[in-house]
């Protein structure tokens, strides 16, 4: 069914023009309210879908659009996030959506409004051709993926379900079937405040944290290298931030270290915590004055779907039909909302456009890849929902 490339480009330019910066990542970020309103109106008035909002937080809505099937086929969710990271470091106008050759520029063009435009273009083409799905086609435009994924949490909490899902994150044309999880931890060492001259009374919490930083380096260079995943490599850990101290002439009573662990699909936050608890116990054994604790601030699991899962096979066949070549299979080191869907029992595969500059100073998506994705999504809908 022929796609309207001009229409898809317009959809993408209009979305890029809307500031949807995640307010938890950038001070004064506009949030997803305006782009969600735009999507709801387009899906309802232009595409003729049943639509409604799901509020994850004030001015942080999801848009759910449903194309009701005749009731005799499998349902499919096509989904992606509407928020972007900030624009402080960007070159030029981050919201102009300018087209230069085959590239469309702007914040979110690649991550991930290009995929959303491809969804809309696929639905528009199917509608224009008179196609009627047997199973429901559900569109989920969710907020907050770039920070804590409260949008996808709200989506599954509403008990919206589907037989399978296609997440349209940018994958540069590969079929992504696995991604890492992460755990954000706070490690705190506790000292004893005292005048800087009173070395017999003060305990330096910052110096004690230095010992744990040495343990962190050992985790990264040795311990975590003992595990490996064929698509994701090994787990990793890094220090994200550190603070402590009371003044030039005072022993610091506390030091706080923020840490991020990137985890393989079979790992949990308990695996990360265990590393730190063992390190703390070892330090306490060597020095009775050593006092530290670790806690989890946020955990998101990794995800993996079988390569021969039915939705993966349907996507594989659609890519072959549209491109004439077998797709590559890959893993994503970053975290994605597919883990939330997978945990809710919705098998999910990831496939999206090509581009460059996610979170970077210059961001663009290749328009021909957006059009290719729209054709692939169209094919998957027909194969899965008919």
Description:
- With about 375 residues, the protein is of the alpha+beta class.
- It has two domains: about 5-180 and about 300-385, Aminopeptidase; about 185-300, Alpha-Beta Plaits, CATH 3.30.70.
- It has nine helices and 17 strands.
- The chain has helices spanning about 5-15, 35-45, 110-130, 150-155, 205-220, 270-285, 310-325, 340-345, 365-385, and strands spanning about 50-55, 60-65, 75-80, 100, 105, 135-140, 165, 175-180, 180-190, 235-245, 255-265, 290-300, 305, 330, 350, 355, 365.
- The strands form four sheets. The protein has a six-stranded mixed β-sheet. Strands 4-5-17-16 form a four-stranded antiparallel β-sheet. It has a four-stranded antiparallel β-sheet with strand order 10-11-9-12, covered by helices on one side.
- The model has no long low-confidence stretch (mean pLDDT about 95).
Radius of gyration of CA atoms, rounded to a whole number: 24 Å
What quaternary form is this? Answer: single chain
Low-confidence stretches: none
Q: Based on DSSP secondary structure assignment, what is the total number of beta strands?
A: 17
Helix content: 25-40%
- CATH class categorisation of the largest domain: Alpha Beta
Supply the key terms.
single chain; 386 residues; alpha+beta; Aminopeptidase; Alpha-Beta Plaits; six-stranded mixed beta sheet; four-stranded antiparallel beta sheet; 17 strands; 33% helix; 24% strand; elongated
Summarize the structure.
By secondary structure, the protein is of the alpha+beta class.
Helix and strand arrangement:
Blueprint: H1 5-17, H2 33-46, E1 50-57, E2 60-67, E3 76-81, E4 99-100, E5 103-105, H3 109-128, E6 137-142, H4 150-157, E7 164-167, E8 175-179, E9 181-190, H5 205-221, E10 236-244, E11 254-263, H6 269-286, E12 292-300, E13 303-304, H7 310-323, E14 329-332, H8 338-343, E15 348-350, E16 355-356, E17 364-366, H9 367-385
Parallel strand pairs: 3-6, 3-7, 7-15, 8-14
Antiparallel strand pairs: 1-2, 2-6, 4-5, 5-17, 8-13, 9-11, 9-12, 10-11, 16-17
